[in-house]
Each structure stands twice: as C-alpha cells, then as structure tokens.
C-alpha cells in the first residue's frame, strides 16, 4: 500500500459481469474461488435483504476527505471500500454520505470499521458491510497524512485491488479478483446447475450415508 497517493485510473469489469455476480450466492462464489477471498465473519451486512456488489474503489484510512476523494472518483456501479483498520471505537461512515453516494450511482460500501445511522442506511436501501455500528464518529482530520485512494488494501488478510469485485450477502463477503471475474461467473453458474440436478435426482431417496460409515468401520448398534 502506498500512502499519500491518489490513483484515478484502473480497469473495471463490465456492468454485465457485475450484474451476473450480484445474482450469485456468496457461498457459491467462495467455493468457485477454492475457498479463498472470503472476508472475516466479523464484517457483516448491516442492511438485511440487500446485496452488496460492485467494482472496488479503495480509500485507505478513516479520514473523511480521503473517503470523499474516493467517492468523487467512483463511477456508477462501483462500491467504495474504506480500509479503516478495523477499529470498533468510532464510526467513519453514515447516512448522509450514503445518500450522496447513491445519488451518484455508487451501489454500496464496505467499511473495515464501524458505521452509524443504520436506520437511514436501511431506509434508503444502501448496501453496507461493516464490523458494526456506533454513534460515536471521528474528529476529522483522522489519519489523513497516511491516506491514499485507489491503492491495493488488505482487509483481514485479503487483498482488495481497485477494480476487483466485492460481493456481500447475509452469508458474508467475498472479493473476486478482476482478472478472474469471467471465469468465476462461469464456474459458479455451472456448479449451481450441477448441484441442482444432483439434488433433484436424489429427491425422496436415501443418501446412503449409514452404509458409507459402516464401510468406513463404524459399528451399527
């Protein structure tokens, strides 16, 4: 990560690719990625019933001006990733900012930290993933000297590079590297189709698990 840099250009997936990922369950995407890319369970969807999905524009640190620079550079269909260090002491995102982002076509936010104004975020339907909520926010500027926009950031050991797609639902959140987006869409769709056919064929039938465990040396009593 490079502090005090603002990058204005990066390659995004197509809107059709983002739309396709938004229709796929996060759990199935994680499977297709080989059990990689999933963020910690501590980062939860704060807006139940919504799906977070978009290409990542990153803001390093909790500072409001750094975050606003990321918002200014975001395009419709993007989400803003605020790499705020995971602090649970103060919030660095709320309803007023969400409404402004929504007016610009930005489709959601991932905050590695806390947010506030949950009722407002839910009322306007702004997909928000964060560690939780607290009414106490920062006194700004906060960490501005080490901020950056559109640089790779690490959250819970997962690298998020501008242009990667972040997908979040009520199971959790996953990062799909931009270079793998098309392949992961196809792999996930194929796996879901195969799974549906497999379980349809098994409807009403024994799964054979008792016999499998007997063959493995379990004692039937």
Question: Could you give the topology of this structure?
Answer:
Blueprint: H1 15-22, H2 26-32, E1 44-45, E2 52-60, H3 64-73, E3 78-83, H4 95-103, E4 109-111, E5 114-115, H5 118-123, E6 128-130, E7 132-133, E8 148-149, E9 153-155, E10 158-160, E11 165-169, E12 172-176, H6 181-201, H7 209-215
**Order of helix and strand elements from N to C terminus:** HHEEHEHEEHEEEEEEEHH
> Approximately how much beta-strand content do the residues carry?
15-25%
Poorly predicted ranges: none
- Summarize model confidence as the mean pLDDT: 95
CATH architecture identity: 3-Layer(bba) Sandwich
Considering the chains and any ligands shown, give keywords for the structure.
221 residues; alpha/beta; Glucose Oxidase, domain 1; eight-stranded mixed β-sheet; two-stranded parallel ribbon; 7 helices; 12 strands; 31% helix; elongated
Overview of this protein structure:
The chain contains seven helices and twelve strands. With 221 residues, the protein is α/β, with parallel strands linked by helices. The chain has a single domain, classed as 3-Layer(bba) Sandwich (Glucose Oxidase, domain 1). Strands 1, 2, 3, 4, 6, 8, 11 and 12 form an eight-stranded mixed β-sheet that branches. The chain has a two-stranded parallel ribbon with strand order 5-7. A two-stranded antiparallel ribbon has the order 9-10. β3, α4 and β4 form a beta-alpha-beta unit. α2 packs across α6. The protein is elongated. The N and C termini lie far apart (60 Å). The mean pLDDT is 95.
